[in-house]
Design brief:
The protein is an alpha+beta fold. It has a domain at 2-106 and 131-153. Helix content is 32%, strand content 26%. The chain has five helices and eight strands; from the N terminus they run αββββαββαββαα. The chain has helices at 2-21, 88-104, 137-140, 159-168, 170-179; strands at residues 27-31, 46-50, 59-64, 75-83, 111-113, 124-130, 141-144, 147-158. Strands 1, 2, 3, 4, 5, 6, 7 and 8 form an eight-stranded mixed sheet that branches. The longest helix has 20 residues, at 2-21. The termini are far apart. The model has no long low-confidence stretch (mean pLDDT 91).
Length: 193
């Protein structure tokens, strides 16, 4: 019973943090029913959908419920994905990320293949776990009643960019992103590697 109550407090804490950060945006919260087997890994997963508004001109999708699956001493992760439009596909990507995280313990600078482009016509078919540069540390650091969540960015990237990172390191890839001034929400952005 204690774990369930703690999970619910964490989910409520993430939601309150997101609502405070995105004041002036329309935010909807949806329960996400993962398929059998995966739902046990991330019970009570919620996806918060944040409309464009005063803080950002793109859509944001944020998990609430990952913290409780893989937390250590009260510290765990949640994930944010930014997108150019509202589409249930992005909630699906975050749910997939949450399930992957429950089994593989994602962290900063990790990545995962998504098996297809994040949007039709895109070359980006991987997600890179990065700092939430579009929103900054105010979103990243989320205090919770029983600890702390760190909200990290799931940035869509290409297989070539992942190969560059493996060969030259994460900092080199981020430098290429800066040099090319990528628009991370552009599904048709060219690969920087």
């Amino acid at each position: 019973m204690f774990d369930s109550e703690r999970n619910q407090r964490a989910i409520a804490g993430v939601e309150a943090h997101v609502r405070d950060f995105f004041t002036g945006h329309v935010i909807t919260v949806s329960g996400y029913d993962l398929e059998l087997g995966r739902s046990q890994a991330v019970p009570d997963l919620r996806i918060l959908t944040v409309s464009p508004g005063p803080r950002a001109d793109s859509w944001a999708y944020i998990t609430a419920g990952c913290w409780s699956t893989v937390q250590s001493s009260g510290h765990g992760l949640e994930f944010v994905l930014t997108a150019p439009v509202r589409d249930e596909r992005f909630a699906d990507l975050l749910a997939m990320t949450a399930s992957y995280h429950a089994h593989h313990h994602l962290d900063l600078e990790h990545s995962l293949p998504i098996g297809e482009p994040w949007l039709p016509g895109s070359h980006c078919d991987h997600l890179l776990i990065s700092l939430p540069y579009l929103h900054g540390p105010q979103l990243e650091h989320c205090p919770l009643p029983d600890g702390h969540a760190r909200i990290l960015w799931t940035l869509p990237v290409t297989a070539a960019e992942m190969a560059h990172r493996r060969e030259h390191g994460h900092d080199s890839l981020e430098q290429l992103f800066d040099e090319h001034a990528i628009v991370p929400t552009d599904p048709r952005r060219p690969s920087v590697a």
